[in-house]
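FAQ

Q: What does a record look like?
A: Structure on top, sequence underneath. For example:
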């Protein structure tokens, strides 16, 4: 059997002023045919497929691996370059099975609002109706008709933080080969849920929902069940949460599963997830708490397309003369370059942060000591194995505050984004991380308390006020209903392997 694998991944914040270009992909990961042999995000998933093919005697072909940090819309020239390279590799390989890693919330300029649906359509047209086409996707995505109509299998990561990408890649490989041999006949059912919010899965309510999905798979009721969280800051037609169930030639069973899980999501809409508190409350609670308190700057998370250089929390710490605090990391290539020019041990006044746009706040002029420097710095990625680039980095000290600045915009995933410069966060009282939830799994063992801060910024968690122009549907929390509505939303049954 011939298997072709590839990955095209970025998450688009339609309201971000940071363009995504081909250079944005090169900055993190862009490989043509050998990405699975590099220690970069997504490389482990392609490597798993390559190794499984070798072990089972299948002919493996690899196309592009492209990963860019979330930002504004991808330039259409970059998107079409990546899509067309993938399709040309499909044409050359003539695969029986195409396995992809996609995001699900990629938007490009020139009216490419559903890049993943477009990719799957182009791959299907090239590979033909008999090829098995499947993808692993991020749950922070927009589930669209084009995705459902052109893929045999869609496996969404279940966890947020997304720690299960490799497990979902293994699921997809197993199901794709079973589909190719005729051992199973996938039937897909999907239902949208009119809720716009984030759903961290460490929340007890969410844990129960994820475990319910897993039991349905383990008991044989479904081949795969996915809770699609949605991505609130994509201005497209299909914003919101959804459920996808894949059964083995059982449309009624698939429909029943999505109805059940959708009802549970609706009931959980107000009760799941963290409480967002003010900067002042978070700092004061952290100063009173013994041990280490983590403050998550959710509104300036580069992982949602925010600039990563906002100064709102830092300014509060400086103004209040807070001691024993760390801010990690602030995206500031210019200040990072100046710090490297002065060298470790140097003293200088730096204008830090506040450079990207209005959501960044005002820049801060600080008297700084350069404590440590690193070139080509990186941190552990979500999978706990591969490395995520951070560019050049500097550890600055200004009064009682330690600040890490860097030249490649990225959220904080792991404590080694801090410890790699020689700074031990457990020796401080407060650590501010530019992240919404992906830091949680790695930082939780270090922290006495984790607080989620609703500071100003590009991703302020007021979901009801997001200024959509292309999504015209009613949704919670912009509106509320006392019971689950009749849902003027899609419920589709798709089976490419036989009549339904």
């Amino acid at each position: 059997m011939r298997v072709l694998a590839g990955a095209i991944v970025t998450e688009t914040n339609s309201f971000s002023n940071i363009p995504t270009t081909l250079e944005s992909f090169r900055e993190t990961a862009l490989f043509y045919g050998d990405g699975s042999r590099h220690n970069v995000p997504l490389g482990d998933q392609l490597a798993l497929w390559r190794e499984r093919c070798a072990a089972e005697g299948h002919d493996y072909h690899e196309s592009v691996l492209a990963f860019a940090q979330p930002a504004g819309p991808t330039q259409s020239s970059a998107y079409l370059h990546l899509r067309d390279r993938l399709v040309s590799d499909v044409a050359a390989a003539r695969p029986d099975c195409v396995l992809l890693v996609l995001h699900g919330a990629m938007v490009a300029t020139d009216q490419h609002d559903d890049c993943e649906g477009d990719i799957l359509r182009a791959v299907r047209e090239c590979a033909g109706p008999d090829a098995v086409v499947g993808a692993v996707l991020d749950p922070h995505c927009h589930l669209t008709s084009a995705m459902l109509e052109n893929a045999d299998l869609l496996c969404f990561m279940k966890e947020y933080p997304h720690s299960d990408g490799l497990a979902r890649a293994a699921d997809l490989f197993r199901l794709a080969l079973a589909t190719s041999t005729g051992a199973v006949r996938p039937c897909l059912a999907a239902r949208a849920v009119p809720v716009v919010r984030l759903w961290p899965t460490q929340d007890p309510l969410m844990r129960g929902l994820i475990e319910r999905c897993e039991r349905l798979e383990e008991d044989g009721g479904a081949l795969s069940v996915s809770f699609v969280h949605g991505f609130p800051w994509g201005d497209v037609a299909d914003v919101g949460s959804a459920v996808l169930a894949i059964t083995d030639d059982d449309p009624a069973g698939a429909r029943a599963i999505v109805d059940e899980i959708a009802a549970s999501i609706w009931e959980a809409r107000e009760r799941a997830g963290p409480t967002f508190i003010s900067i002042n409350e978070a700092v004061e609670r952290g100063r009173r708490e013994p041990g280490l308190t983590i403050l998550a700057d959710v509104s300036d998370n580069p992982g949602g397309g925010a600039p990563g250089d906002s100064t709102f929390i830092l300014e509060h710490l400086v103004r209040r003369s807070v001691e024993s605090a760390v801010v990690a990391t602030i995206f500031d290539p210019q200040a990072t370059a100046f710090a490297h020019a002065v060298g470790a041990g140097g003293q200088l006044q730096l204008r830090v942060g506040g450079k990207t746009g209005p959501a960044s706040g005002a820049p801060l002029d600080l008297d700084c000591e350069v404590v440590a420097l690193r070139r080509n710095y990186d941190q552990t990625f979500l999978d706990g194995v591969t490395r995520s680039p951070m560019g050049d980095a500097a550890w600055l000290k200004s009064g009682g505050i330690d600040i890490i600045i860097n030249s490649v915009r990225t959220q904080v995933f792991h404590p080694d984004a801090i410890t790699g410069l020689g700074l031990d966060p457990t020796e401080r009282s407060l650590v501010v991380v530019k992240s919404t939830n992906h830091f949680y799994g790695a930082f939780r063992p270090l922290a006495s308390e984790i607080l989620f801060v609703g500071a100003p910024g590009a991703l302020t968690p007021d979901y009801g006020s997001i200024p959509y122009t292309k999504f015209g549907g009613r949704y919670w929390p912009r509106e509320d209903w006392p019971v689950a509505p009749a849902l003027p939303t899609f419920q589709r049954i798709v089976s490419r392997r036989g009549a339904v």
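Q: Is there anything notable about this one?
A: The longest strand covers residues 364-380.
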